[in-house]
Design goal:
heterodimer; A: elongated; B: alpha/beta; Rossmann fold; Helicase, Ruva Protein, domain 3; 2 domains; five-stranded parallel β-sheet; two-stranded antiparallel sheet; 12 strands
Chain lengths: 472, 357
């Protein structure tokens, strides 16, 4: 009859737990040291990135499993456990005998056995584990700049590649690039990352620059397109708002023509922006084309156009934040989103005929920086209009008037020097030029300077002799 | 580990049977304590040796009561006791007996065997180390085989047969140290030490001329047989026998569980006979403790007297003044009785003694 079976099982479990902790601790410590050593080795010799080395974390799983397996093998046999309990309970061999043979009436004389305490002295390994963890952390925290040159084995391009990946992600998210092209660029990005080599950093950097330019080009095109969309939407919004205000004051015929222009502008804006087309709805567009828009519909149309512009502005903002386009693009989109209120409504209300209407709408067709060059309008149109030449200037009776110069002027012309060339008409100095030297230095011609000029003592005799001469 | 040659295991002693046996043993011990004052542990050990049917070597200074104890033991057990004083000129025939030419009426003369003092139940070999090796070796067969062979005739010795030898640790001049083979045949080597002043005072005040009292209630033959019969039913658990085996194996240098002291100071460890002796002595110790089974504490109690005379130490031990008892104690302290085989840094609490594995 086997006694104290429960105590034996409990004792086995307790010992197994302690042994598992012991062996796991040792094996995990060993793995920590090995891992840290290889982290240092690979980082210093091959410049392997930290993220790759983090896979070593997975090594703890088999290490712990090995510790548990080892502990399971080391758990004492049932006989040994029973003997230990017999010794602990000072049973004099009765418990051991009960496991091996029938002990008859003695079985009732075996007292309850208390479970012996099991202790694990961590000792040296208990101190080594924190040290190992510190070593591991230190191996990961070695700054890149302290690592010796890896001799071109690899090139640290993690940061620029991450930035490019973010940009590409944004371009894909905003659908600013065809999916096929985005996929190709993504593959190129990955290839550059893998082939980045310290031996030829210029090649890698060139590839990165090329990719960045590709992204920038796509973003710039998108920004340009967004500005155009915003401008088209602004024109349509301006006209819609003006018609909403001037609807009651206009001649129905002129109103119909203005509605057609509005339909044209709305169609143009919707064609350029898919989001706007969806926002406007087909019914509203059809009503607009038929010139049957009510004041509410005009308001609705204006609001939809404003939303469309807001979307374009937000898109440009994202591109600017991602440094895909220049910050000036934000100014352009804001300018394109501007929608003057009031002037056009006033003009439309004053229209008497089709000519007035055309003149009023001219500004819409030719906003600043857009439309046909030189068409004028409220803002005079674009400035890059081509020069138009009519008849040439006739040369007959077109000659300079002859004028005789005084001899002094002729003489001065002879001593003239080229000071510069100007397309402006020549000018003559009002007063004559001053003397540059001698007794009359700085004296003005005809200004009576001789009388006011200070005469030096050595010249006084000559001057007196001049004025004392006989008159002819 | 069981095999076909294993003896059938007898049933355990019932509590009542055990109580009666322990009472018998207690009676013997009580009378021995009356004869020799202040020697209870020694008496228990000697009685354990007797119950194990082993021979005992008593080592102590003259006058400490070795002979008196053995004589009293013979009287208490109700068996024959003889004493032989070993001297250098003692011959084997003086112990074993000899053939003499004897005239027999009507049959002429013939060689008749005259048994020596060895033909007894308890033979006290006093100062055994004073006899020559030749004479000492004459006891080998008697001690091991419990028989004497002379002129081709083997004669059985009486049953039970015990040799209780004594030797003096001083006055070694003119002595012949017992050979290892002889020593190995002794179950115990027991050191008979001094007694305290209180005991001495009791002896002086209660004994005229030191004469011990005559045992009042010697055992009958039937009681002695019952005592030995109980020994046959003492159960030695497998874990305890494994502990004994490991203990003996660890006494050899370079053994797996040998201690540093064993490796340094021991030339030869204990023999398999020591393991057998330890098993038997542990049974006897458990019986005297009133238990039907042998525990680790029984082994720990009998291990020193079983092992100390079986270890052969080297000269380093003599230089470092390391004795056999210290080495045996080191073994007992280092070995985990249960054989859990745990690493050194995992400790299991032990009741009573504290500490870990």
């Amino acid at each position: 009859m086997v006694r104290c079976e429960r105590e034996i099982i409990g004792f086995r479990a307790r010992l197994g737990t302690i042994l598992a902790i012991r062996y796991c601790l040792r094996i995990l410590l060993a793995w920590t040291m090995i891992w840290a050593f290889f982290v240092v080795l690979l980082r210093v010799s091959a410049g392997v990135e930290r993220q790759v080395l983090l896979w070593g974390l997975l090594g703890y799983v088999p290490a712990a499993a090995a510790g548990i397996a080892l502990a399971a093998r080391k758990v004492p046999s049932t006989g040994a456990l029973r003997a230990a309990l017999d010794r602990h309970g000072e049973l004099g061999g009765l418990l051991m005998a009960s496991g091996e043979r029938e002990i008859g009436s003695w079985s009732g004389q075996i007292p309850p056995v208390s479970m012996p305490a099991v202790r694990l002295r961590l000792g040296r390994h208990g101190m080594l584990l924190p040290a190992g963890l510190v070593f591991l952390a230190a191996s990961f925290l070695i700054p890149d700049r302290y690592l010796p040159s890896v001799g071109g084995e690899s090139l640290q391009v993690g940061k620029p590649m991450a930035e490019l990946a973010e940009k590409l992600k944004l371009l894909k998210q905003e659908q600013l690039m065809p999916a096929e092209k985005a996929q190709v660029l993504e593959k190129n990005l990955e290839r550059v990352r893998q082939e980045a080599s310290g031996k030829e950093p210029a090649k890698t950097m060139e590839a990165i620059d090329h990719l960045e330019q590709s992204f920038g080009k796509a973003a710039a095109e998108a920004a340009q397109s967004a500005v155009q969309h915003a401008q088209a939407a602004s024109r349509a919004q301006e006209l819609a708002q003006a018609l909403e205000k001037a609807q009651g004051q206009m001649d129905p015929k002129l109103l119909g023509e203005a509605m057609k222009d509005l339909a044209h502008l709305a169609d143009q804006a919707a064609a350029e922006s898919k989001a706007l087309a969806e926002g406007l709805g087909q019914d509203l567009l059809n009503d607009c084309r038929q010139g049957n828009l009510t004041a509410e519909q005009l308001k609705e149309l204006a609001e939809a156009l404003a939303k469309c512009k807001e979307c374009e502005r937000l898109r440009i903002e994202k591109l600017v934040q991602a440094r895909l386009v220049d910050a000036a693009e934000l100014g352009r989109i804001l300018a394109a989103c501007e929608c003057p209120d009031g002037d056009l409504a006033l003009l439309l209300g004053q229209c008497k005929d089709g000519g007035d209407l055309a003149a009023a709408l001219d500004g819409l067709a030719a906003p600043d920086g857009d439309g046909l060059p030189g068409r004028g309008g409220r803002n005079r149109g674009r400035g890059d209009a081509a020069m138009t030449w009519s008849k040439g200037t006739e040369k007959e009776n077109a000659a300079f008037k002859e004028k005789a110069l005084p001899p002094a002027a002729v003489a001065s012309l002879k001593q003239s020097r080229l000071a510069g060339v100007s397309s402006a008409a020549p000018t003559t100095a009002k007063s004559g030029g001053g003397s540059s030297g001698g007794a009359l230095a700085n004296a003005q011609a005809g200004g009576g300077a001789a009388r006011t000029q200070v005469i030096l003592p050595e010249h006084e005799k000559a001057v007196r002799r001049y004025f004392d001469r006989q008159k002819p | 580990m069981s095999n076909s040659l294993a003896q059938p295991s007898p049933t355990l002693l019932e509590p009542e049977e055990l109580a009666a046996t322990v009472a018998l043993a207690g009676r013997v011990l009580e009378q021995m304590d009356q004869v020799l004052l202040g020697r209870n542990p020694l008496h228990r050990l000697v009685l354990a040796g007797i119950l194990s049917r082993g021979h005992i070597l008593l080592e102590g200074l003259p006058g400490v009561g070795k002979t008196a104890m053995i004589k009293a033991l013979g009287q208490i057990l109700g068996i024959q006791f003889r004493r032989v004083q070993f001297t250098p000129d003692l011959m084997p025939s003086d112990i074993l007996g000899t053939h003499i030419l004897q005239e027999k009426p009507g049959a002429g003369r013939e060689m008749t065997f005259q048994p020596g003092p060895v033909f007894t139940n308890i033979l006290l070999a006093d100062e055994i180390n004073r006899a020559s090796p030749k004479t000492q070796s004459a006891l080998l067969e008697a001690m091991q085989e419990r028989s004497v062979t002379l002129l081709g005739n083997t004669r059985r010795l009486p049953d039970p047969f015990f040799v209780l030898a004594s030797q003096n640790p001083i006055e070694l001049e003119g002595t012949y140290p017992l050979p290892e083979a002889q020593l190995d045949r002794f179950l115990f080597k027991v050191m008979v030490g001094d007694v305290s002043a209180d005991v001495l005072e009791d002896i002086i005040s209660t004994r005229r001329r030191g004469e011990p009292p005559v045992p009042a209630a010697p055992l009958s033959a039937e009681e002695l047989t019952r005592l030995f019969g109980a020994m046959e039913r003492m159960y030695l658990p497998r874990a305890v026998s494994r502990y004994i085996a490991r203990l003996v194996a660890a006494s050899h240098p370079r053994a797996r569980e040998a201690t540093e002291e064993v490796n340094t100071y021991v030339t030869y460890g204990a023999s398999p006979r020591a393991a057998i002796a330890m098993g038997e002595a542990s049974r006897a110790h458990a019986l005297l403790a009133g238990r039907p089974t042998v525990g680790f504490e029984d082994v720990r109690a009998v291990a020193p007297p079983v092992m100390i005379h079986r270890l052969i130490l080297n000269y380093k031990a003599r230089f470092d003044q390391i004795g056999e008892p210290a080495i045996v104690q080191g073994l007992l302290n280092s070995l985990d009785e249960a054989g859990l085989g745990l690493p050194a840094d995992v400790e299991v609490e032990k009741a009573g003694r504290g500490g870990g594995v």
